[in-house]
TrEMBL record:
It comes from Terrapene triunguis (Three-toed box turtle). This is Klotho. The gene is LOC113406799. Gene3D superfamilies: Glycosidases (3.20.20.80). Transmembrane segments: none annotated. Belongs to the glycosyl hydrolase 1 family. PANTHER family: GLYCOSYL HYDROLASE, KLOTHO.
Amino acid sequence: MALFLYDTFPAGFLWGAGSAAYQAEGGWRQGGKGASVWDTFAHRAAPAGARQPQPLPSAPAGGDVASDSYNNLFRDTEGLRRLGVSHYRFSLSWARLLPNGTAPPSPAGLAHYGRLLARLRQLGVEPVVTLYHWDLPQRLQDAYGGWASRTLAELFRDYAGLCFKHFGGQVRYWLTIDNPYVVAWHGYATGRLPPGVKGGPPLGYRAAHNLLQAHAKVWHLYNDHFRPTQGGQVSIALSSHWIKPQAMTEQDIQECQKSLDFVLGWFAKPIFIDGDYPQSMKSNLSSLLPEFSDAEKKYIKGTADFFALSFGATLSFQLLDSQMKFHQLESLSLRQLLYWISHEYNKPKIFIVENSWFVSGSTKRDDQYEVILLFFLSAIRYDEVDVFGYTVWSLMDGFEWHRGYSIRRGLFYVDFQSHDKKFLPKSSALFYQKLIERNGFPKAAHFTEYLPSFHQAS
């Protein structure tokens, strides 16, 4: 295979691992932390105006303890040191920093993230910090209806300003919001995820409209007031699937384009192209889709310093509504998705900020994460896609959202039953360590055993 003529990545390529606050931190009442919509949802108490959510599989306590990262900062960062990563993507808990969602801030919350950033600096690990990874303070949901309200954009801007002020001197890469598709669609349209509001498509599209404006406000805040002294970059983590036609007909190919427009393009086109939604959405959704004014289009356009891409188990194959496939076939091809993004969005610099697969919750230390990494190198070397970094998801096993503890995605195994949350490297951690050390793969012959299973999965 031509792929293996090259087995190394470009010099300076960024290798990292990631986590999200609610999935890993635990400590849900420590240090004065406020409740988030995920705390409420996982405790089976429906927010005001929402129907009772369905129980989460194998998650009697949700993320109350999870991986207990709040109390095991050194354990987690020692895992990063062992891997030899160049960066660590983690999220800040809005409700830990601002228990009521607004000022005053929690000294304990500020101190916790200050300690984490100080430890990363000691290790020479670059922080990639997500401001919002799905855990909205419950007070803001109760008071305003969450992201269904335009007020949230202003409150999010204030929260971001606090984070830039306290932590921005140590952070070069910021991500405003993780996977706005899931937040808007499953938080406010289907109600499958917190805050569990079954508002249907109109409310889902309104929430997305507000999320885009919130992101733009934060980008402009950083650009105008913090970039001159801090010199960082800001983007938004957009998730996508890949789709291929049932048949190579013009109609099926157009339906594939529509599928990508309705999931990724919904957020990417306003930010990377012209400040407005894809034409396929405008044509098919009519009055359901809110409109941006000309001033808003100008304000949103260009509000990302790089393209932050999430591709993997959370959106693909789990949280993508079947109607968004338009009767076409979903695929695992990260290479083809990268090529499409490069050509659709004017060849941006791409940072893969989440990618992995998952295994059963009963799996301990043997997995085959390696196969997921084998084929995106070709997008860089042969398709000339400008990918400058990769983030495996996740550093450790944790609370896997709607799947609870029924699956595992970590490089490090966490024994959730043990008091100290025993932390052991899986086979994937050892593989990833060697990959980072070499900045590439071992010789092709070492991988032939994986090829049949990969092609079957694709």
